[in-house]
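for the recovery benchmark. tokens below, seq after
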């Protein structure tokens, strides 16, 4: 011990408040809400890519956590997450759940004027309708086609199946000419009317159709 130093020292006063004398660590999230939103938005896009790779369970877990806890998600980020959840449910043949997610996403899309997502959602709903409600599905494909032309947003190649699969089922129910006629009628619909068909919560009885 050095000369002149006391053998014992009084306790630091700061220890009365904290069990140590280290600087208080502020949480890394304080004041960084924008950065948090960007990270969560990236996660919704990543989950969509994971779904596209066929990893439904992994994408589901990512999105359940994101949608369930992220109240600060932007409209577009939440829309992407809900649409992907609808696609996951669709691929699991859980069409009732897929419709629920589609309607919630479409409400956000219309409120925020996200027309690109609106076109995707109309096509997703056409897929869900194609076997039980083929005429309505054809109307929705026609409306989505018109919307894409209007906003100059062609159907991405990665989502070509979102048109081809329902179209094939509709043709099987209505025949080629029936499909063309119904789709042409859908092309002439106002977007608001097409959206209303999707937002209508009432599930009608399956349509009785003739074959080809």
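predicted aa per position
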């Amino acid at each position: 011990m050095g000369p002149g130093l006391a053998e014992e020292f009084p306790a630091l006063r700061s220890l009365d408040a904290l069990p140590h004398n280290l600087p208080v660590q502020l949480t890394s999230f304080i004041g960084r809400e924008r950065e948090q939103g960007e990270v969560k938005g990236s996660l919704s896009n990543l989950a969509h890519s994971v779904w596209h790779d066929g990893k439904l369970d992994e994408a589901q877990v990512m999105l359940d956590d994101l949608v369930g806890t992220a109240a600060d998600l932007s409209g577009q980020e939440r829309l992407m997450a809900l649409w992907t959840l609808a696609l996951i449910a669709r691929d699991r043949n859980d069409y009732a759940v897929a419709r629920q997610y589609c309607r919630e996403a479409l409400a956000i899309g219309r409120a925020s004027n996200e027309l690109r997502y609106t076109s995707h959602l109309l096509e997703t709903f056409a897929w869900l309708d194609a076997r039980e409600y083929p005429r309505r599905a054809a109307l929705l494909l026609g409306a989505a086609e018109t919307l894409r032309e209007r906003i100059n947003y062609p159907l991405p190649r990665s989502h070509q199946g979102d048109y081809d699969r329902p179209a094939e089922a509709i043709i099987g129910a209505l025949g080629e000419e029936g499909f063309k006629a119904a789709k042409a009628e859908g092309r002439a619909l106002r977007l608001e009317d097409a959206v209303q068909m999707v937002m209508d919560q009432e599930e009608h009885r399956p349509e009785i159709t003739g074959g080809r």
